[in-house]
Amino acid sequence: MLPGPPPPAVRALRTAVFVDEQGVPAELEHDAADELADHAVLWDDAGQVLATGRLLDPAAVASLVTGPAGWAAAADDEPVGVIGRVAVRGDARGRGLGRAVTEALERRAAQRGLTTISLHAQVTAAGMYARLGYREFGPRDRTVGIEHVWMRRALLPGLRRVRDDDGPELERLIGGIWAEYPGCVLDVDAEEPWMRAPASAYDGDAGGRGYRGAMWVVDAAGAGVGADGGADGGAGPAGRLVACVAVRETAEPRRVELKSLYVAAAARRRGLGAALVWRVEREARRRGARFVDLWTDTRFTDAHRLYERLGYAATGQTRDLHDLSNTTEYYYSKELPNLR
């Protein structure tokens, strides 16, 4: 993955495909957004470019271009990235390289905390994107004489902002996960009263009773987790939560705290935990934070491995909560990398 500007060989391939082959004006093909885009590039053994594509992050390119229709926010104003300029060399087509480029850009989008991807597909390529899970939205249009359609795919299906009426489901989710660990006891009223009105709690003031932050949940129906705990392609019960995560500001400038990352057993091993952490990191950047901190129960060893894989470092600091669960926590911290 290459941050812009794209190397000359990438520009040459795009010129050959879009300008020479399809008649797109050169001044439209190479635009200012290239400078701040992420570019996926596939090379052959001789060092020649076989395929390429780019990802536009609205937070990165907002100062350069006016957002296209595909940037219209998804549900709950979640950030939407745009994939484009997917080109495959003529003699390399039919080998799945367009799909490989698109999937690489999706992985990069997830790392940026983008939760939805849009693309302005040529109608002749719409079938490939449909097989990757993209769905058409809006009317078709003609751009430089070529029929196009906007398509969209959720990278975090089922994700939405928490509501106050999610309290009972959060209690079920978190209580069920705590029950996997001997000695963990959830008493909402005594120790976790924020669950009674979670949206209100995270819309509060850091200096008062509430948190200045945000919380997200993942609905089973959108995530494709069935009532029996298995994957069922989206037929799970609406409103039943399978994951959550939150972030709150702290008294220290440029630092936020990651809170309440929980993924139900039925939804694990799908990359959901990592994607939720990346969503928090995006929100942290939006709030001007440079560091993300977290405290995690010493018993949650799977979570420790996830955090460490994502770049969080154990500081060696611990604390005892003196709660009903007799909890001791480890302190982890991560300095957010510059994505540009």
Describe this structure in words.
Strand 11 (241-249) and strand 12 (255-263) form a beta hairpin. This protein has helices at residues 8-21, 26-29, 58-61, 97-111, 126-131, 167-178, 188-191, 198-201, 220-223, 272-286, 301-309; strands at residues 2-3, 38-43, 49-56, 80-88, 116-122, 135-136, 141-143, 146-154, 159-161, 213-219, 241-249, 255-263, 291-297, 313-320, 328-335. With 340 residues, the protein is of the alpha+beta class. 27% of the residues lie in helices and 29% in strands. The strands form two sheets. Strands 1, 2, 3, 4, 5, 6, 7 and 8 form an eight-stranded mixed beta sheet that branches. A seven-stranded mixed beta sheet has the order 9-10-11-12-13-15-14. It folds into two domains: 2-154, Aminopeptidase (3-Layer(aba) Sandwich), CATH 3.40.630; 159-335, Gcn5-related N-acetyltransferase (GNAT) (Aminopeptidase, 3-Layer(aba) Sandwich), CATH 3.40.630.
**Number of domain modules:** 2
Given helix and strand content, the structural type is: alpha+beta
Mean pLDDT: 90
Helices, by number, come to: 11
